[in-house]
Design brief:
It is a single chain. With about 290 residues, this protein is α+β, with helices and mostly antiparallel strands. It has two domains: about 150 residues, Rossmann fold (3-Layer(aba) Sandwich), CATH 3.40.50; about 130 residues, Tumour Suppressor Smad4. It is built from six helices and 19 strands. It has a six-stranded antiparallel beta sheet with strand order 8-7-18-15-10-11. A six-stranded antiparallel beta sheet has the order 14-13-12-9-16-17, with no helix packed on it. The protein has a five-stranded parallel beta sheet with strand order 3-2-1-4-5. β1, α1 and β2 form a beta-alpha-beta unit. The mean pLDDT is about 90. Its cofactor is a divalent metal cation.
Length: about 290
């Protein structure tokens, strides 16, 4: 089996779990391993033993043919991992050494069992839809896709912006707000949720349109089919605005025209059989802690 591993950081108390994972992969299962440059520096920083591995650069065009991609970190690292994999749909194993972990669901103490389960086939694939971004200025280049959301917001100014939104060419609304979020069902538990958006199950095949601090209080989040194309035009008192695609951002102006659709490929996440989206909701959002339960 061939495995790539990417990560930026993990706490000292997690070190032993990571070392045990690497030991199992290389010594018990004799896997061929590729480290990202970031993870190689992390291994050196924590003085883990010198494993027989090769490096790849953090670009999806440089990633070799691998069977699984291990993402070591939090949800931000998972979003980066999706860009490393790109359209190849390599299964991504999310190892949560961060904080909340909606996407990276495997806890450090579960790592040893997770490695054994991969080799035994005790897992399933959870395919997540992605956003595809088109623009008249080639925003984000060939990384014009996102697992969570596309967001356009005001910059460091008190002035709100106006986002004119169209669905399949038909005018929807002009949002007077601090910004507008277009999220996937996966992204519904991210920035959209903090702005009052609904939680949407991952396979719902929807986009969620969520305004950020809207000026008109009657404006509410909206769920539409991801078979639609959402077009946006932005204006405001200031010339420049901030466009974000997951954790990547660029400065745009009012001349930029944006179209959002569903990407042709998906992100293939690996889920262990004991994990589910509902179990993740209960755990991460502390549902069920009411003493009446």
């Amino acid at each position: 089996m061939v495995i790539a591993i990417h990560g930026h950081n993990f706490r000292t108390e997690v070190r032993s779990y990571i070392e045990r994972m690497l030991h199992l992969l290389t010594h018990q299962y004799h896997a061929k391993i590729f480290f990202s440059n970031d993870f190689a520096r992390l291994v050196q920083k924590h003085e883990l033993q010198d494993y027989d591995q090769q490096l790849y650069y953090t670009n999806h065009s440089d990633l070799p043919e691998v069977d699984f991609f291990f993402s070591v970190g939090g949800d931000g690292t998972m979003l980066e991992s999706v860009t490393h994999v790109g359209a190849r749909q390599i299964p991504i194993v999310g190892i949560n050494t961060g904080r909340l972990g909606f996407l990276a669901t495997i806890a450090p103490h579960e790592l040893e069992d997770a490695v054994h389960n991969l080799y035994k086939g005790y897992y399933h694939f959870d395919d997540r839809s992605l956003i595809h971004l088109d623009s008249n200025c080639n925003l984000f280049g060939d990384l014009n896709f996102a697992l969570n959301e596309f967001t356009v917001t005001k910059r460091d100014t008190a002035s709100m912006i106006i986002v004119h939104a169209y669905v399949d060419g038909e005018y929807l609304n002009s949002y007077w707000a601090d910004g507008l979020i277009i999220s996937t069902p996966t992204g519904s538990t991210g920035y959209s949720l903090s702005c009052g958006g609904p939680i949407v199950f991952p396979r719902s095949k929807n986009f969620i349109v969520t305004p950020v601090s809207p000026h008109n209080l009657s404006v509410r989040p909206l769920i539409i089919s991801d078979q639609s194309v959402i077009s946006l035009q932005v204006e405001g008192r200031n010339r420049y605005f901030l466009a974000s695609l997951d954790s990547r951002s660029e400065i745009i102006d009012s001349s930029v025209q944006i179209a959002i659709s569903r990407e042709q490929f998906c992100a293939r996440l690996v889920q262990m059989k004991e994990h589910s989206f509902m179990e993740t909701l209960r755990t991460k959002l502390n549902w069920g802690l009411d003493i009446r339960n």
